[in-house]
Design a protein that fits this description.
By secondary structure, the protein is an alpha/beta fold. The chain has twelve helices and nine strands. Bound molecules: ligand BV8.
Length: about 260
């Protein structure tokens, strides 16, 4: 039985001036990307600090690169799912729309989303830690073992934000502005435990946004949400996009 959303939520979507979707690994789960904290999540087997941190990389760069090479391989075979495409549709229908993502898989842009702030970087990009030269995956794949910068001999690393590292300033600043200006803020497919990203839903709520959460499981954010849709993003996001599309088809009543 296809879930439905309340008439109140439909009206809210239709009347929203600025919509923000804040996404986590759950939005890519239906594309086959493993999440971090779910039952079969990445962190259930490994400790994040042991792999996604500068300390881990300096201690054992080849182990960290083995992990990222494995994840790059998974991500090279995935495609966007209905949840990603629904957000791209909503961007074309809403007066203002932005995606703030913690995901590093690039699937939002591949689905057609244009305003995407990548808070934790992107696994498709790499750079030299010494001179900053960017390198694509072809260079990384061609390197045997830990990729070394031909220009300066520095170690090349994935362009993702590790624990203890600052988030990219532009993406962070733009995300805070988007959260402060949203009248509908949707937290979708995130366990809402990684900071400072996880502070954005409450920045939005404090600035007057209606806070909607979509997740098959409750999270620490659920009690603060104005509305919680318990279910998959690939199911609910297309329903929200349909509600928004319906509004755009309605003849404008001349009252
Ligand atoms: C920083 C990139 C400081 C790399 C990642 C103690 C308290 C508070 C904070 C801290 C603390 N100790 C340390 C900190 C700070 C730390 C932090 O927050 N730690 C947490 C774990 C306690 N944060 C940092 O270190 C950040 N930097 O703070 O710098 C600083 C200050 C000044 C100067 C210098 C430095 C950097 C954080 C970024 C870390 N990088 N990844 C990589 O991926 O390899 S984190 C990792 O977690 C991913 O980026 C991921 O996006 C992020 C959040 O996870 P989620 O996306 O939410 O995924 P998760 O699996 O957890 O949840 C999935 C959800 O989807 C679940 O709820 C599930 O139910 C749901 N789901 C499943 N299927 C579906 C679904 N939902 C919808 N539909 C479905 N079908």
């Amino acid at each position: 039985m296809t879930p439905v959303i309340s008439p109140g939520l439909s009206r809210r979507i239709r009347g929203a001036r600025s919509i923000v979707a804040f996404t986590g690994a759950g939005v890519s789960a239906e594309s086959g990307v493993p999440t971090f904290r779910g039952a079969d999540g990445i962190w259930s087997k490994l400790k994040p600090e042991e792999l996604a941190s500068m300390g881990a990389f300096m201690k054992n760069p080849s182990m960290v690169w083995e992990w990222y090479a494995h994840r790059k391989k998974i991500m090279s075979g995935i495609t966007p799912n209905p949840g990603h495409y629904a957000l791209a549709r909503m961007e074309n229908l809403a007066p203002s729309f932005a995606v703030i993502t913690q995901n590093i898989d690039g699937l939002h842009r591949r689905a057609g989303s244009r305003t995407v702030y990548e808070l934790h970087g992107n696994i498709e990009r790499n750079y030299c830690m010494k001179c900053g030269t960017p390198y694509g995956d072809d260079f990384v794949v061609a390197s045997s073992g830990v990729p070394v910068c031909p220009a300066c001999g520095g170690l090349v690393r994935p362009d993702v934000v590790w624990f203890g590292e600052m988030l990219p300033e532009d993406a962070w600043d733009a995300s805070v502005r988007a959260a402060e200006g949203a009248d509908l803020f949707m937290s979708v497919g995130t366990s809402a435990v990684v900071y400072p990203a996880a502070s954005l839903p409450l920045v939005a709520k404090r600035s007057g946004a209606y806070l909607l959460e979509i997740n098959p499981e409750p999270t620490p954010l659920t009690p603060q949400a104005d509305e919680y849709l318990q279910g998959a993003s690939g199911v609910f996001l297309p329903i929200l996009a349909d509600a928004l599309e319906g509004a755009r088809r309605l003849p404008h009543s001349h009252t």
